[in-house]
């Protein structure tokens, strides 16, 4: 068991080095030698755990999505649902250095989903999981009479996911136009349109500005 645990831990260390290197150099310019240098080990040690760059990249993407899932699961699922939806969505935005690094790497990996079937599968599963989560949250809001009349939870969940991805891209590529507070405010305004009046909107927006 300890040997297996050490093996798994080393694979995670390699994946973390991959993320840091790709965030700094870009995916196309990152080599196994770069990752070994980042770790302070030999290329042979990296290849001991990942025989090719492709297998390492796929593991790195899995690691990236797993960290995002852990953040979502750590959100306390307490009402009001409007604020729960906001807090869940906020975990997916690059609002701190750790998430900025991860989501910069996510942007680097994203084009690979067009040509790599396995990467496409992982990305599709992660996207569907997020949409399904927001669908459940919005469906619960509809049952409680909190969702605006006539809205479909599944369709609004897809729109919310698209908004989050768009805000992420612009925060990372146009930070002067889309700062952290700007993204939080846009997310709040979008959710305000989905939910019926129940809480004071100004109070919610003030809380959102505090992140």
UniProtKB/TrEMBL annotation:
Coiled coil: none annotated. Keywords: DNA-binding, Repressor, Transcription, Transcription regulation. InterPro entries: BetI_C (IPR039538), Homeodomain-like_sf (IPR009057), HTH_TetR (IPR001647), Tet_transcr_reg_TetR-rel_C_sf (IPR036271). Residues 8-68 form the HTH tetR-type domain. The keyword Zinc does not apply. Residues 31-50 bind DNA. It comes from the Bacteria. PANTHER family: HTH-TYPE TRANSCRIPTIONAL REPRESSOR NEMR, TRANSCRIPTIONAL REGULATORY PROTEIN. This is TetR/AcrR family transcriptional regulator. It comes from Nocardiopsis alba.
């Amino acid at each position: 068991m300890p040997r297996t645990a050490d093996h798994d831990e080393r694979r995670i260390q390699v994946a973390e080095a991959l993320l840091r290197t790709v965030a700094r150099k870009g995916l196309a310019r990152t080599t196994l030698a770069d990752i070994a240098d980042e770790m302070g080990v030999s290329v042979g040690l990296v290849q001991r755990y990942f025989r090719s760059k492709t297998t390492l990249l796929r593991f790195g993407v899995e690691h990236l999505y797993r960290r995002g899932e852990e953040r979502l699961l750590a959100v306390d699922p307490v009402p009001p649902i409007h604020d729960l939806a906001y807090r869940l969505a906020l975990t997916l935005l690059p609002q701190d250095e750790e998430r900025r690094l991860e989501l910069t790497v996510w942007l680097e990996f994203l084009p690979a989903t067009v040509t790599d079937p396995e990467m496409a599968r992982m990305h599709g599963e992660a996207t569907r999981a997020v949409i399904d989560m927001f669908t459940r949250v919005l469906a619960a809001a509809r049952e409680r009479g909190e969702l605006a009349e006539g809205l479909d939870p599944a369709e609004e969940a897809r729109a919310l996911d698209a908004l989050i991805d768009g805000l992420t891209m612009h925060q990372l590529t146009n930070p002067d136009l889309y700062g952290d507070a700007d993204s939080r405010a846009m997310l709040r305004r979008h959710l305000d349109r989905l939910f019926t009046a129940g809480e004071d909107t100004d109070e919610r927006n003030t809380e959102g500005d505090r992140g």
